[in-house]
Design a protein that fits this description.
The protein is α/β, with parallel strands linked by helices. The protein has two domains: 180 residues, no CATH class; 288 residues, Vaccinia Virus protein VP39 (Rossmann fold, 3-Layer(aba) Sandwich). The protein is built from eight helices and 24 strands. α2 runs parallel beside α3.
Length: 495
């Protein structure tokens, strides 16, 4: 939903209708959010929202972008993130509550139509479309048109229950505006426009769509999960952010699962809250969760509406996390990967076993380890303690296709944190990752791994700090806190 009331998502009509949206507008209001600046008091709003990216050209793609709300001479005075999926003949949008009232999503009347002339016989392959292309809400609202100057309308109530996939249809428009909209259009004071790129490549969490290594195992979040375990609604953080979490038995997972007590407590509440606050303050950031476990961080960030790439290697964790994602209805915002991060891809490694901390096992190798004698060729993947490795850089195509440019990162992989930087230099060099939360409890005991980590981040102008932003001395790494943070130079506003 838009960030304030009196703000509204604005829409326009393309010359060629090739976009899809989760919300469908089917009246004279239009079927597309406008792509050019609109005058004040249009779309029945004071602050109309519009989209500044290009329209999708290939069915099946999903992009993560930003809706901006024009106000007081500022074309992006407020903003919120949305997802856009190309469903072939139309686009759908995953829209959320605007940040202010009156803010509104806006539409416009089509100015052209699709004309097809067949001159030769052609063979086409029907792309695999995302599930949301078959399960969305249609909006047919004439007052969303960019020329509507009537009663001020707010989208906050419409999207108050959380993100919804929407398709706009009708003469009013099918696509959110992609250029700044002036205030008071679309029957709202703050009109919203989309500042991201529209999908142009096939999406959904499949190897074929991302063209990635066959060693990367993407969990299919559409598969029903019949296993029985306890799932609860989490405590609300920052007043209204909560999700579902699925737990191990407390006697087997006394730390993480044991920390959850309905609406009273969660695992690492202070750290999770800090991540949420940073994401709220920096709207352009997504989240990368390395060592997701049962998904405390992943679930809260997804509930906030941000995209999450979550990686964990332990199947009992992942089945619980997948179920929590389904229960919270955030499958479109999470890509879940079942692999261990290592310096070599396609290896099979054995995890340690901890009967009281089932989710906290790790790959323990000596400081002068040789991965060869630790690997098992043709190992059965039915054993959850035998895991297949990937290099971190192998997930870069996924991040690029999802439109991730900047992200916060959490690394908690039980002493294997150095493997992330050893195998992920391209990700750190390609994406803007200003802030990294890293567990230091176990890795501090491996001198060689510590050197790899410190050298890697120092060369990229990161500073190690505490949770209270106190600078850490790299020569005293053995007495660093159990949780540290790497802050990139010139990002002091994170503290």
């Amino acid at each position: 939903m838009p960030p304030i009331c009196a703000a509204r998502y604005c829409a326009d009509a393309p010359n060629i209708l090739t976009t899809t949206s989760t919300t469908t507008a089917t009246t004279a209001s239009g079927t597309q959010i406008p792509t050019t600046v609109v005058n004040p008091n249009q779309c029945s709003t004071s602050a109309a929202g519009w989209y500044s990216g290009t329209m999708p050209s290939i069915p099946g793609a999903t992009e993560n972008g930003t809706v901006c709300y024009s106000w007081n001479g500022n074309s992006c005075n407020w903003s919120n993130n949305i997802l856009v999926t190309n469903c072939g003949s139309f686009c759908i949008y995953q829209l959320r509550k605007p940040p202010v009232c009156n803010a509104r999503y806006c539409t416009d009347v089509p100015t052209g139509s699709i004309t097809t002339t067949t001159t030769a016989t052609t063979t086409t392959t029907t792309p695999t479309l995302s599930p949301q292309c078959y399960n969305y809400t249609t909006i047919d609202d004439e007052t969303r048109n960019i020329n509507e100057l009537g009663t001020m309308v707010c989208d906050q109530n419409l999207f108050s229950s959380g993100p919804s996939w929407i398709r706009f249809t009708g003469a009013g428009g099918i696509q959110i505006l992609t250029e700044a909209v002036k205030p008071d259009k679309c029957s709202a004071q703050a009109t919203g426009w989309y500042s991201g790129e529209m999908p142009s490549v096939l999406d959904t969490a499949t190897k074929n769509s991302f063209n990635i290594s066959p060693n990367v195992h993407i969990v299919d979040l559409n598969v029903p999960i019949r296993a029985k375990f306890q799932c609860i609604k989490t405590k609300k953080l920052l007043h209204n952010i909560s999700a579902n979490i699925c737990l191990h038995e407390t006697k087997k997972d006394k730390y993480i699962s044991g920390a959850f007590n309905d609406s009273i407590s969660i695992w690492e509440e202070e750290q999770v809250t800090q991540i949420l606050q940073l994401l709220i303050h920096h709207q352009h950031l997504d989240f990368i969760d390395l060592g997701a476990n049962i998904g405390t961080y992943t679930m809260y960030v997804a509930a906030l509406g941000r995209f999450v790439l979550a990686i964990d290697c332990f199947a009992p964790n992942l089945i619980r996390l997948a179920r929590a994602i389904q229960l919270t209805n955030v499958s479109n915002q999470v890509i879940l990967i079942q692999n261990a991060l290592f310096t070599h891809s396609g290896q099979y490694l054995r995890l340690s076993i901890d009967t009281k901390n089932i989710g906290g096992q790790g790959i323990y190798l000596s400081s002068n380890y040789s991965y060869k004698y630790r690997t098992r060729k043709n190992s059965s993947t039915n054993n959850p303690y035998i895991v297949k490795t990937i290099m971190f850089d192998e997930v870069l195509p996924i991040l690029i296709k999802r439109g991730v440019r900047s992200a916060l990162m959490k690394i908690d992989i039980e002493g294997s944190e150095s493997f992330v930087v050893e195998s992920g230099s391209h990700i750190f060099d390609t994406l803007d990752i200003p802030f990294i939360q890293m567990e230091w409890l176990k890795v501090r005991h491996y001198v060689d791994r510590v050197k790899v980590i410190i050298d890697f981040f120092s060369k990229r102008y990161y500073y190690p700090i505490t949770s209270s932003c106190q600078l850490l001395n790299t020569r005293e790494y053995k007495i660093w806190p159990n949780e540290i943070y790497w802050l990139k130079k010139n990002f002091s506003n994170f503290c």
